[in-house]
Amino acid sequence: MNRLKVASLLLFLILLSFALLVGGTMPYFLFYIFLLTFFIPLIHSLITLIGLKGYVRIPSQSLFSGESINIEYQVENKSFFRIPYLEINSNITKNLSGIESPKVTLVLEKKQSFIHKETVLLKRRGYYKLGEIEATIKDVFGFYSFKKRISSNTSLLVYPEIINLSTFKITTSHQTGEALVQNSVFQDKSRISSLREYREGDSVKAIHWKLSAKKDIPIVKDYETRGDTYATIFIDNYAKSFKDDIDRRLEDKAATATLSIVNYCLSQNIEVCLETQNHKSFVKIQGQQKSDLKPFLEALARFRGNGSLVFNSFLMSRIETLKRSSTVIIITPNFDKEIGALGIQLKMKNFNPLFIVITDIDNNKGFVDQIVEEMLNQEGIPIYILNHNTSIKEALEVYDG
Predict the structure, then answer these.
(1) CATH number of 226-397
(2) Are 224 and 193 in contact, with CB atoms under 8 Å apart?
(3) Fold for domain 52-159?
(4) What is the pLDDT of residues 31-77, one digit of tens each?
């Protein structure tokens, strides 16, 4: 193609020189014919570009990561000329699933339309403002190439996947005036609210052995939920901590782990508070009932590693606002000495700190100071390490503080 353009330019200069130097009907006739050779394809391409219309259709509802959706786009040649070469490139599938769609190349006759449909697996949570395709028109000689974008104004909100946790065991907690020791921060083991048959996922420790033997079926004890139990989750989204986050692995893992813990708290009627940043703004969401889940879903779907304030500074500014004896869950990709010191400080202030460290070992992202980890373990402060491919359910349910 480059050779054709170079040859055309040389021919243009030769014919122009011939017409100017020699003059006469034939030189100018040849020169004008040559110009028309380029002018007519240009006009043809511009007319078909103006007449090219289309739409992009994606679902307008909110969906969860892991679900599938149907997307559809159409291009129509409304002009009276044939489009000899049309190339369609869609970025929708790549944005939603990380997989590039193959380019579509076709000839579009006058008044003809082309419709493309595909099913996309939503691998990424996030907020997607537009679905867009790019159409490229070329003339039959390949002299000209024009691009046109066709987009949809429909936004798509993809929630993180909810991992249903049957237990979430952390360190013991002590309330003033009541020397209560508990393995789970969400239940009072001294107060049984009801008895029921065993269901898959129930803890073996909750089985009422005497009654099970009497009825010859496993019977499980349901415990009362502590009304004075609170959980506050801090997510580190300091921009530098998420620099070069490949495929947003750290972001997605942090969001999914957070949502799973929030969902567990709300299912147990535990008051939970989520705090993080969005650029320079502070984000704070609270809830206690299962019906309070939606604001958490929306915030975590939009969660990005874009915080402007250093996470340690952000945490320090929020400590004094915490409720007494609450569990403080800190989710971060950077577990260093400073963050470890904050854990000790929280425990000294009679809080129950817990750390979840997000890593991507394959790409050497995320940092864990093993000395600090050992020190906090000695202090009885739980630390969970979640690599991007680690099962959240297995990692968070097996710990027995």
Answers:
(1) 3.40.50.410
(2) yes
(3) Immunoglobulin-like (2.60.40)
(4) 777 777 788 888 899 999 999 999 888 877 778 888 888 888 899 99
